[in-house]
Model the fold of this input.
Amino acid sequence: FTLMSRRGLLRQMLVFFLLLAVADAAIRALLPVFLRSEDVNPIVMAGLIATAPLIGAFSGTIVPREGSPTRLLRISCTITILAASSAALLFTLAGTGQGTVTVLLALAAVAAFGVTIAADVPTMTGSMMMVPEQLRAPFVSIVQPGLMGIQAVGALAAGAVASVLPTTSTMALALVIPVAYSSWALLRTLPP
Done:
């Protein structure tokens, strides 16, 4: 806790993880709801739901993981800004489409979201560089339950917001929050 409180860059990375976890939980919770409301074929629905983790896993293997922690945070922020912005726009458009157009827009949105999932790989690598080896296990033992807890809160909040806003608008909003934070964090880490 002391290490996290004293290092501003490490705090930025942790907030980044937490916001991506909230967005991930919101999308995973609401995507089936949206697809059911559009009467998407169950097989197509299963394929769409499985797409994001697959693309995230593939993207996670090719994103850069070398360089300073600051550089890695910049890479993560850039990926989030580009991919999550695209996903938010596509989810919004999917909410206005019909039939096959809705499915294609949802597929494109889920693919962009899958790339967003991989954005935390460089930052996770950078955070491990900043934590001394003897503190890595305690660090992970604090961060991992925090990520799991924040995902539960994210899914619950997404359900509450989706009772007021359309489902696709709620998914887009869940992505706008990490984009806004990534923009701020990117500006803070740029050299003067």
Observations:
- The two ends are 30 Å apart (CA to CA).
